Amino acid sequence: MGQFLIKRVLHMIPILLGVSLLTFLLLDLTPGDYFTALENNPQITKERLDQLRAKWHLDESWYVQYGYWIKNLWFANGKLGDLKSQWNKEADGRVWRVIKHAVMPDFGDSLQYKQPSSQLITLRLWNTFMLSLMAMILAWGIALPLGIWAAVKKDSWVDRSCSGIAFLGLSIPEILLGLLALMFAYSTGWFPIGGVESDMYYGVDEWSIPRLMDRFHHLLLPAAVLAASSLAGLMRQMRSNLLDTLRAEYVTTARAKGLGEGWVIYKHALRNAINPLLTIFGYSLAHLLSGAFIVENVMSWPGLGRLTLEALQQQDYPLVVAAVLMATALLMAGNFVADLLLAWSDPRIRLEK
Fold first, then answer.
1. Contact 314, 132 (CB under 8 A)
2. Cα(118)–Cα(323) distance, rounded to whole angstroms?
3. Residue 33, Cβ neighbours under 10 Å: how many?
4. Angle at the Cα of 313 (from 309 to 318), degrees rounded to 5?
5. What is the mean pLDDT of residues 107-135?
6. What Å distances lie between residue 292 and 49, 78, 200, 333, CA to CA?
7. In this predicted structure, which of 59-68, 113-122, 330-339 has the lowest mean pLDDT?
8. What are 116's strand-pairing partners?
9. pTM of the entire structure?
């Protein structure tokens, strides 16, 4: 297991480098740059724009820009000095601060926001993580019981009702579902529209119960929209897997021994039927991340997807690259967790050296 963990971590490095390289290439293919919009401003001279482009290496080829970006990624631009200053601070948390500054790469300053891209990513990443986590809890927490119920009650009204729910969840696009959710929230007033919390709670203790409940209230509707299509697919997959497992010979043998139907289903059939779902856990996380980019922009949720779109519109390449790399890292983390869950769930699976 230790060797497997090390290999997976090492495999992430070339993947992230490849994604960053491809991102730089695609950004270079887009016309103009961040300072193109300033060319029509009479107060900014052409010489000043040339100086700004030279400062950010935008007058160079894309591969030269990528070389400067790699150079400044770690332990550049005073990074070693920052580590020393963090170590010289008070002893409390000294080691943790140094590790945090050493591990967090320097993605460069955002052209639009004039602050480090890593700080912007950190602020928005938490919102996207909470949205995806809540959507995953809703999807898996509802899909698995409904899928099991539909398989056990095959061809009954329960099965037909679950099939109808799955059909609606798969057929309605997330953009349309998000707009319908906004109309529902506006007409009923049951849910807030946009934002992560109400203005009245700014300055209140971050971990106070009223503020946490208000954040949950803002989170619930976007998470439900994001979870809809994943819920439908997981429910159908759970039903199909369990039906196939219930026809297996070892399940028939367990019934012949006189075991109760509930014990046969939940002890013998369910554990084997759920293994294929664990393998698609990483893919479901990828679907949630891609869906989060849509839901965040439609429902005004201040997350990583909305920040990425704003950076793309402004051609803020340091922020775009940082956001894409962070989304890629989250996707690889989901696949990694799926492999570990599968190995834990099925003792027959062994990680080869």
1. no
2. 9
3. 20
4. 80
5. 83
6. 36, 35, 26, 17
7. 330-339
8. 109
9. 0.74
